[in-house]
Amino acid sequence: MIKDIRLGWVYNSSKEKTIKIFLKTHKGTFVASAPSGKSKGKYETKNLDLKTIFKNFPKIKKKFLKENEKNIDNIIEKIGIEEIGSNLSIALSIAGLKAVSNNEAYKFLNPITRGVPYPLGNVMGEWLNKSIQEFLVAPLKAENIEQAIKTNKTIWEEVGRELKTRKKNREGGWVSKYDDIKNLDIVTKIAEQYEAAVGIDIAASSLYKDGKYFYKKLKKKLDDKEQMEFVIDLIKTYKLFYIEDPFHEEDFTNFSKLTKKVKCFIVGDDIFATNERRLELGIENGSSNSIIIKPNQTGTVSRTIKTVSEATKAKYTIIVSHRSGETLDTFISDLAVGIESPLLKCGIYGKERVAKLKRLVEIWNFFENPIMNKPKVFI
Hints:
By secondary structure, the chain is α/β, with parallel strands linked by helices. The protein has helices at 50-62, 72-79, 81-84, 86-101, 105-109, 145-163, 180-193, 224-238, 252-261, 276-285, 295-298, 301-313, 331-338, 351-366; strands at 2-11, 17-25, 28-33, 115-116, 118-124, 134-138, 197-201, 208-209, 212-215, 220-222, 242-244, 265-268, 290-293, 317-321, 343-345, 371-372.
């Protein structure tokens, strides 16, 4: 039974204030905080500003008191996420699951799992600067989670030395003075030395304007056909195993065409926004073969699990992901283990990213015979 809920705030990794919840039950106090994304798809549920949330909270809080913590998501749906704000609703929802599972959400989601995802890490990227947003590595040859984490960290360090920079982006990846092709040359060369796979997040919606994709440093303006040719060339030239948001968030057609043309993970983020209905449209159109899962995009853990279930039925690969504005909350690590995701996109550098990696190590050490969750295809 819920005895009390306290509302607080904490700074996220982008130095912005975000929601923190303290949920008190008969078992103790369970804490959760809400991440936030700078690059947001328009189909995400909407956050409310903190001033409004704190003003409305006393009235909202009353609806949860003396209720079973298992009912939190149902209560949220009755009130309406739009009224609560997605940032408050996801913090409440995560705190509720932590209470139900006694801070072992992965066991509650999947009592028989013993698999841990590979970390997918951002080593370099430009944020909202008319360039490829993220250059990613995944140590798919690693035999255990500690080796995987160490490999990503080593690659990140070597990329930094090659770039001769100390400037980092919002997710702890290096900021480069070079163009996208030179950046791919650097990352691919170093990743190959450690038998790591390379991927990119183009974040195409942020490049798209007036029917063209603008690449600032490459001095390119590409129409749909040229963007398709450019993306295919990158996949083949650099043997990319993963490409995220290669087209803008409304373009189911070109997502579908690309999925048929190449063999790699074609990953939808903005186009799906962890939204069950958007995913259904993607499945109907044959758009993508993989989906990014960000619980705060949809507002509750229950909604997130529904989207995961639909994706699993359609044989989509599921990649659980952090946000650019992260907190020390490690729930997404439990989620990735619980739903048997083969990849957890959680960064490499920064205390908010490292916290999630440490949680994977904790879970690995709990299992009697742990395994790494191998991606099913394209590797």
